[in-house]
C-alpha cells in the first residue's frame, strides 16, 4: 500500500498528505487535543505510520469500522501500540484477512479463539516472537523487575520488525525529518 493512501485511510486530508510538512516543522499546537499527528513513510514493501499522541488505528477498530477501513483483502496489517496500555498491544492481520490481537508477552497462537492460519503467517510470527523471548514463557526476565515491560517491548518490536522485514529510520524519526500529517480522531 502507498503510504499516502494509508494515512488517508486513517483520516488524513489527501492534499496535505501529498504535500506534507516534515514532522519537525509541523504546527502541532494547531491540532485539536483529541487528534493525532503522525509521521509516515515506506520500509521495503510496508507503509508505516508513527503516531505520537494516540493510536488512530486502535480508535478505528474500537469504533467498529474494522480492518477493511484500513487495508483491503490480500494486505497484511501489523499495529504495535504503546499508548493505550502500559505495555505495547499487538494487532496482526494476515493477507487472508485473519486477525488477532494480543497483549504483550502473549502468544499469537495460544488464545481462547483458535486460528485457521491458512497462510502460516501467525505461526511464523509467533515463532519469531518466541525466539526473541517476547512471549512470557520464553522471556528470560530482567535483573530489575521494573524493566521487564520495557525489555519485553524491545524484544517484541524487534521480533515483529525482523520477521516482517520492517525497519524504521530511527535517526530521521528522532530528528523529525519524516513527513507528517494531521489524523483527526475517528470517534
Q: What topology does this entry show?
A:
Blueprint: H1 3-9, H2 14-18, E1 21-22, E2 36-43, E3 46-51, H3 56-62, H4 67-70, E4 77-81, E5 89-93, E6 99-102, H5 121-131, H6 148-164, H7 170-175, E7 179-183
Antiparallel strand pairs: 1-7, 2-3, 2-7, 4-5, 5-6
Key descriptive features of the protein:
7 strands; four-stranded antiparallel beta sheet; alpha+beta; three-stranded antiparallel beta sheet; globular; 7 helices; 187 residues
Short overview:
This protein has 187 residues and is of the alpha+beta class. 30% of the residues lie in helices and 19% in strands. The strands form two sheets. It has a four-stranded antiparallel sheet, covered by helices on one side. Strands 4-5-6 form a three-stranded antiparallel sheet, with no helix packed on it.
Task: Give an overview of the whole structure.
The protein is α+β, with helices and mostly antiparallel strands. A hairpin with a 2-residue loop joins strand 2 (36-43) and strand 3. The chain contains seven helices and seven strands; from the N terminus they run ααβββααβββαααβ. Helix 5 crosses helix 6. Strands 1-7-2-3 form a four-stranded antiparallel beta sheet, with helices on one face. The chain has helices at residues 3-9, 14-18, 56-62, 67-70, 121-131, 148-164, 170-175; strands spanning 21-22, 36-43, 46-51, 77-81, 89-93, 99-102, 179-183.
Amino acid at each position: 500500500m502507498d503510504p499516502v493512501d494509508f494515512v488517508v485511510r486513517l483520516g488524513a486530508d489527501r492534499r496535505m498528505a501529498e504535500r506534507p510538512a516534515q514532522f519537525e516543522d509541523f504546527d502541532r499546537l494547531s491540532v485539536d487535543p483529541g487528534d493525532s499527528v503522525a509521521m509516515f513513510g515506506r520500509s521495503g514493501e510496508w507503509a508505516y505510520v508513527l503516531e505520537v499522541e494516540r493510536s488512530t488505528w486502535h480508535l478505528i477498530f474500537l469504533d467498529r469500522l474494522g480492518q477493511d477501513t484500513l487495508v483491503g483483502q490480500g494486505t497484511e496489517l501489523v499495529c504495535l501500540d504503546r499508548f493505550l496500555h502500559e505495555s505495547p498491544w499487538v494487532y496482526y492481520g494476515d493477507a487472508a484477512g485473519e486477525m488477532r490481537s494480543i497483549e504483550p508477552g502473549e502468544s499469537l497462537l495460544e488464545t481462547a479463539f483458535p486460528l485457521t492460519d491458512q497462510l502460516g503467517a501467525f505461526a511464523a510470527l509467533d515463532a519469531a516472537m518466541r525466539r526473541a523471548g517476547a512471549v512470557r514463557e520464553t522471556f528470560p526476565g530482567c535483573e530489575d523487575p521494573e524493566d521487564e515491560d520495557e525489555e519485553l517491548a524491545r524484544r517484541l518490536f524487534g521480533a515483529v520488525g525482523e520477521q516482517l522485514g520492517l525497519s524504521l529510520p530511527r535517526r530521521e524519526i528522532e530528528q523529525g525529518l519524516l513527513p507528517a500529517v494531521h489524523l483527526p480522531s475517528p470517534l
